[in-house]
Amino acid sequence: MAKERLKFISFLAPFAACASLILASLANFLVHNDYPLLRPEVLIVVSAIIALSAVAATLYLILPRWGRSLFEGLLAALFIELNTTSLSLAVLAGVGVAAMTFWKAASATRPMALFGAIVLVTTLLGLGGSTPWLQSVSGRGTAAPVDATKPAIVHLILDEHIGIEGLPNDDPDAIRLQTQLKTFYLNAGFATYGGAYSEHMRTMNAIPHVLNYGGRVGLGMRGPTAIVGPTEHLARLLRQGYRITIFQADFADFCGSVRFSRCVTYQSSSPTALLGTSLSTLELAGLITAKFLSLSQIVDYGLLPWRLVAGPLDLPRLSPRNLGRSTSPASLAALNELARILSEAEPGNVYLAHVLLPHYPYALDRNCRLRNWRDWEKPFTGRKLSKRQHAYYEQVRCTTGKVETLLKALDRSPAGKNNIVIIHGDHGSRITEVEPTEANIGKFSDRDVIATYSTLFAVRPARPQPGYSSERLPISLLLKDFAASGFSSPPSSAAPERPTVHLDGPNGAPGKRAALPRV
Predict the structure, then answer these.
(1) Peptide bond into 358 cis (omega under 30)
(2) What is the pLDDT along the chain (519 residues), one digit of tens a residue?
(3) CA of 156: how far to CAs of 177, 457, 503, in Å?
């Protein structure tokens, strides 16, 4: 009996260390994201952590001394990584704990368990604070009173929206989508540019480039966020006396460099945005687990090197970072708030919105119903190209339906029909066989280039002048031309004789120019 009791005591310390540290990290993740803790999917995740902690503690008991020290070091590193953004600090802590416990021939599991319990309790008491998934901040606006005779301007950037002429002309479903898009925008009064294209393949360069009328690209990334920086487009609108409201995903920051009246930011990866969707309890538990684990590079890229495993099993798709992506359901929920804002649109106000739709994952059918979580598609996987494309087409149809909802909300607003609307993408779908970058010159096809750079562009002046152009025109030039007319007449720019785009160089920097192929 004494021997069994001793075994149990030996088991208890590593079990408590593992369970308390990971549960504390999970609690911190959920509380930070303002996710309710008393839900069945959370109980499932907690139960899984407790079970895995029991397995880990059992293995710990049979490890040699160096193995136990390594285990404790990895546990310390994992805790640091799940709760901070510093991989170097996690590695330093892990090496330090492993070296110290091995040198001292001691165990750190008891102090680690105590520390984890303290963090867990303080987190559950709410001492760490939380971040709502949708946040609104008031700014300084404009110094002068807004001119109520000016129309309201709505500028909507739909991330990863391919252009109409960029859709494959040998696919019946793509041809149907071409017709649907053209019909929708023309019937809604838009001058539509089916051959429009972006000169850049990534948001961090594409959006600053178009908003500066082709003058410059972005300022790079700050962590996971693209910094748009000052833009000539918004600066011009401010000089004209407009008041600016920004509606943005957390992926790109517009508000940090403009004098806004209001800035609304939605957390595109927040699990809280998934509440109220049709996802089952098990699917929610799976998404929460993936999002939680993706906080750790040790898990996502270190101990489980998914990216090194390719082929028919398509295991890179199963990495926590990929499985945890839920930007499209979050963006769908965010559009409800945008519709409410536009229903209150007033003359003399600009509403610039960047929404991660029809951006991957392709989780929505044409009626904006969530597909089964296991069937969500992404552009950069080894799955069959046509499978990815058709999932994307359905999400484009959903997005178009939501654009119609936004336009109706705008027409009901105090601004009424006195409005100007600009809608465009930042780049194409990027659903390719080979990504068209400098490193892949000679490997990618014309179709890969078209899918990457072809993008939507449509404008509606206060007096609609619907029409359609298939000319290949850069969206930066189209926006510049429309702004130069005072947004009174559709762009009439001449197409470049030889359209070119920037291939990405190292770290996403704009690299060599390449010819834009004909469709």
Answers:
(1) yes
(2) 555 665 666 789 999 999 999 999 999 999 999 999 999 999 999 999 999 999 999 999 999 999 999 999 999 999 999 998 888 899 999 999 999 999 988 999 999 999 999 999 999 988 777 889 999 999 865 556 778 889 999 999 999 999 999 999 999 999 999 999 999 999 999 999 999 999 999 999 999 999 999 998 888 888 889 999 999 999 999 999 999 999 999 999 999 999 999 999 999 989 999 998 889 999 999 999 989 988 887 776 554 444 444 444 444 455 677 778 899 999 999 999 999 999 999 999 999 999 999 999 999 999 999 998 878 888 876 678 999 999 999 999 999 999 999 999 999 999 998 999 999 999 999 999 999 999 999 999 999 999 999 999 999 999 999 999 999 999 999 999 999 999 999 999 888 889 999 999 998 888 899 999 987
(3) 20, 10, 25
Q: Topology of 134-269+325-515 in CATH? A: Alkaline Phosphatase, subunit A (3.40.720)
438, 503 contact by CB (below 8 A)? yes
Residue 418 token pair: 């006195």
Domain boundaries, the chain: 2-124, 134-269+325-515
pTM, full prediction: 0.91
Contact 453, 199 (CB under 8 A): yes
Whether the ω angle into residue 361 lies within 30 degrees of 0, i.e. cis, is: yes
**CA–CA gap between residue 195 and residue 163 (Å, rounded):** 7
Are 271 and 33 in contact by the 8 Å Cβ rule? The answer is yes
